[in-house]
Amino acid sequence: MLPCGNARLGCFWPAGFGPARSTAAPTEAMLFPHSRPVPAPRVVVTGSGIISSLGSGWEQNARGFQTGRSNFQPVRLFDVARQRVKVAAQVDLPSTSPNNNRLSERQSERLDRAGRMLLLAAQEAWHKAGWQAGPGIPIILGTTGGGMTAGEAYFRQAMDNPNRHRNQPTRAIHYQSHTQARMVAETIGLEGSPICIVSNACASGGDAIGHAWEWIRRGRAERVLTGGYDAHSQLIFAGFDSLQLLSTTTCRPFDAGRDGLLLGEGAAILALESLEYARRRGANILAELVGYGSALDRHHLTQPQPNGDAALAAMERACQSARITPAEIDYINAHGTGTVLNDSSEAIAIGRWAGSRAAELPVSSCKGSIGHLLGAAGAAEAVVCLMVLQEQWLPPETALEKLDPVCSFPVVSKPQAARVRHVLSNSFGFGGANACLIFRRWE
Predict the structure, then answer these.
(1) 109 and 63 in one domain?
(2) What residue ranges of the chain have pLDDT lower than 50?
(3) Does residue 26 sit within a domain?
(4) Which of 372, 385, 407, 436 is catalytic?
(5) Is residue 141 a contact partner of residue 148, using CB atoms and an 8 Å limit?
(6) Is 202 a catalytic residue?
(7) pLDDT of residue 156
């Protein structure tokens, strides 16, 4: 099997078939040789939904991010006695299913932790957008673990009781990440919706939103439900701990004494639609998504390229697609994991990208508040950007003690109001995946 041009979307060609190989990406003129250039549709956000360790919904999360509140607790979802680190940011899920749930009682009971969080965020975004169900509304989601907890339950039962098969078929189905997206479609009442799952490490949520933006700009859809989700699992937690990437103190992005990240979980969803469609129905617009850039480096499986070459390329491409310069960006929501290598690489990339503008460009990371949400990180941080644009404040990193000298920019360390028109959101992941989004305040 040979991967197609966009292998991260899980598309494959049988050996001997598929497109010819080329070292250059096809241009629009190559793909559509007889088409006339027409302005691409503008893309706006009309709904958002979020659930994190700070709470469920816009209000609880906005107040937490605005004040820089963090919520790390001892892990209670699985045994961490053998791990170096024993804390994480965890979501308090409601005991009942979301309101207006079209799923049967049995279907609701079969939902795993990740699926429940995804449904809560998706329903909030759907209702805030005021959308009515229709045929073929695409669902594009980013995730790394997906239904990993269902896979873990399957494995444990197979090892402990190999002759017991009860619940195993359901776990096998819910382990597949497209199942959670299908549950969203069924809950909302969508028919024939295309489903696309992006698994591109910690850039998954950002890439999913960027891919949805491209669908609308290319005329493939008028509206798309998009975002990211991930839940804690023992396998992923133990994996990060074994790599010694988890902090034994606390998560302090861009701090000179930082010693690692802390994991979180959650889900965040955006309702994207063309400006024309939004105006036609008189929608309330939260912000405009004006730019998206992605780039890949092949430096290392888990370590970023030290000089941030691909991160720089992603930021530059986002600006090019938005047709703005770094001087017009008023705030950067950084990837900022709190690891030594990631933060220094990103800081160098921001300095190279912003130039002299860096000295007065406010930057902060939300991972000191809610931890690293992996595949959901880019989506959750996109919602934070919407909050910044709507409410005109900057989210602080209250755990910051001493700024790393590699940072040529100020890091927001205290709650503060600000005048913000353009924000840049960075999402960088293992394997050199880099995604950047630019949002504009709707005026």
Answers:
(1) yes
(2) 1-24
(3) no
(4) 372
(5) no
(6) yes
(7) 84
In sequence order, what are the residues at sequence separation of 6 or more whose Cβ sits closer than 8 angstroms to the Cβ of residue 324?
290, 291, 422, 438
Give the span between the Cα atoms of 128 and 89, in whole angstroms: 26
Q: Does 251 participate in catalysis according to the annotation?
A: no
User: What range does the domain containing 224 cover?
Assistant: 43-280
The Cα–Cα gap between 65 and 373 comes to: 15
- Whether residue 354 sits in one domain with residue 331: yes
User: How much is the pLDDT for 35?
Assistant: 54
Considering the candidates 202, 251, 366, 385, report the single residue annotated as catalytic: 202
Look at residue 405 in the predicted model and tell me its pLDDT: 97
- Output the pLDDT for position 439: 98
Asked if residue 401 belongs to a domain, the reply is yes
pLDDT at 96: 65
Do 366 and 398 lie in one domain? The reply is: yes
Number of domains in the chain: 2
Picking from 320, 373, 428, 358, the residue whose alpha carbon sits closest to that of residue 384 is 373
In this structure, what token pair is assigned to residue 426? 């960075």
pLDDT of residue 237: 96
429 and 314 within one domain: yes
Query: How close are the terminal C-alpha atoms of the chain, in Å?
Result: 49
Nearest alpha-carbon partner for 122 in 145, 144, 99: 99
Choosing from 174, 232, 335, 422, which is the catalytic residue? 335
**Spatial separation of the C-alpha atoms in residues 177 and 173, rounded to whole Å:** 9
Q: Is 174 a catalytic residue?
A: no
| DSSP SS3 for 61 | helix
Beta bridge partners of 203: none
Closest CA to 73 of 48, 53, 52: 53
User: Which pair of structure tokens corresponds to residue 128?
Assistant: 């805030």
**Which pLDDT belongs to residue 22?**
39
